[in-house]
Design brief:
mainly alpha, two-stranded antiparallel sheet, two-stranded antiparallel ribbon
Length: 114
């Protein structure tokens, strides 16, 4: 089984587990939100914005769609070891969905991450 890296390239299960291990703050084998933020947090603003864009793209259900849907969020959380229902994912998006369209676009994602 292969996973996508933050650059969209194939990543083996072993490599994915190694990356998760590097950022897993509480040792539970999954990346929590704080762990994820630390993973994408770069040194300067440019690097952070690039990492944030790549992270955003990982959550897109259909690549290039330009938004994170509840289903896209659910799919990525499952890959990270955190199973959530579609209703839970919808509820997670709602507070950051500033235009009320039910999805997160990149500016809304940036705001959520900052």
């Amino acid at each position: 089984m292969y996973f996508a890296s933050t650059t969209g390239e194939a990543m083996s299960r072993e490599d994915a587990e190694r990356v998760i291990g590097e950022f897993d703050g509480d040792g539970d084998g999954t990346l929590g939100f704080g762990d994820f933020v630390r993973m994408v947090d770069g040194g300067d603003g440019k690097e952070f914005d690039g990492d944030l864009r790549r992270a955003f793209e990982m959550f897109e259900e259909d690549k290039g769609e330009g938004c994170i849907t509840p289903r896209g969020l659910q799919r990525m959380l499952v890959r990270l070891g955190d199973r959530k229902s579609l209703d839970e994912c919808t509820a997670m998006i709602r507070p950051f969905d500033l235009d009320g369209d039910g999805v997160l676009d990149f500016p809304e994602f940036q705001r959520m991450m900052n």
